[in-house]
Amino acid sequence: MLAPGRPDRLIQFIDVRDLAEWTLRKVEARQTGIYNADSQAGAVTMEQLLETCKAVGRSDATFTWVSEEFLAAHKVGEWMEMPLFSC
Asked: Are 3 and 54 in contact (CB under 8 A)?
């Protein structure tokens, strides 16, 4: 399976269930404002995320890491054609 970028690239993401719970708490407390919601910076690498997905899905996939430059040169669309890929 193609994997975008470097295995050690630090990523940030958030579980939609956590975001939904947090959003409901803010609404119920009538708290408004502008918020940034994602995971703790530097907590997870791309390889850790993909290996976790592989384990949960009980997959025997192997990863072929390709650079962002390679993907951009081949006009691979960020997120739509390659999830988790961003230049």
From this structure: no
List C-alpha distances in Å: 45 to 4, 10, 87: 12, 4, 16
Residues 6+ positions from 79 with CB-CB distance below 8 Å: 85, 86
Domain residue ranges of the chain, discontinuous segments joined by +:
2-73
**How far is 11 from 69, CA to CA, in rounded Å?**
18
List, for residues 17-33, the tens digit of each pLDDT value.
999 999 999 999 999 99
Indicate the SS3 state at residue 32.
coil
pTM here? 0.71
Amino acid 39: pLDDT: 78
Q: SS3 of 58, please?
A: coil
Q: How many CB atoms lie within 10 A of CB 6?
A: 14
First to last CA, the chain: 19
